[in-house]
Amino acid sequence: MKKKDLIEQLVSEIETGKVKTLGIYGHGASGKSTFAQELYQALDSTKVNLLETDPYITSKRHLVVPKQAPDQKVTACLPVAHELASLQRDILALQAGMDVLTIDEPWKTSEVLSGAKPILIVEGMSVGFLPKELFDKTICFYTDAETELERRLARDTTVRKRDASIILDTHKERRDQYNRYYKATESQADILVDQSGNKFQVKTTNNII
């Protein structure tokens, strides 16, 4: 299945009311944000909200130490790095028809998401740690270590203005913590997409495609 085929299937399921809340997640630089944006662009913007979860990743990660790796900094691959209660509150508010003011970030200002819109796409690493009953369907993305590093360098040095040396120095830690803490969330997704080598392969579908 190609990317455009998956997008077309999701658009059909959303427009027919089969899917009203969609969760898209995966480790950093796995391709989830790009896919979420492409799906959002394929839908009627007057009917759909896109809630990005990066702002719910706490800036206080330096206060926590991974038990199995005390010499490492905490990355977003650990549940403790996410403000999950606040994120779940905002998802439930949108589902109940209430407006939500998103959290601003250096690369994106806050905006009001309208509770009047019936469709909600929630995108970001945090989705992997949320109760799956919040969503009608979930999609998880992953990629190999080399592709992740290539994408992270391209994105974080331009969009997020981060130093390339820091990205290189922390890459192994991020990948180690992904394998230890985050990889297990992949088996919970309805659809699993492998973008290793910048390809697009639907690896696991739980018999729904």
Automatic annotation (TrEMBL):
<keyword id="KW-0808">Transferase</keyword>
<dbReference type="GO" id="GO:0016301">
    <property type="term" value="F:kinase activity"/>
</dbReference>
<dbReference type="InterPro" id="IPR027417">
    <property type="entry name" value="P-loop_NTPase"/>
</dbReference>
<keyword id="KW-0418">Kinase</keyword>
<dbReference type="Pfam" id="PF00485">
    <property type="entry name" value="PRK"/>
</dbReference>
<protein>
    <submittedName>
        <fullName>Uridine kinase</fullName>
    </submittedName>
</protein>
<dbReference type="InterPro" id="IPR006083">
    <property type="entry name" value="PRK/URK"/>
</dbReference>
<feature type="domain" description="Phosphoribulokinase/uridine kinase">
    <location>
        <begin position="22"/>
        <end position="195"/>
    </location>
</feature>
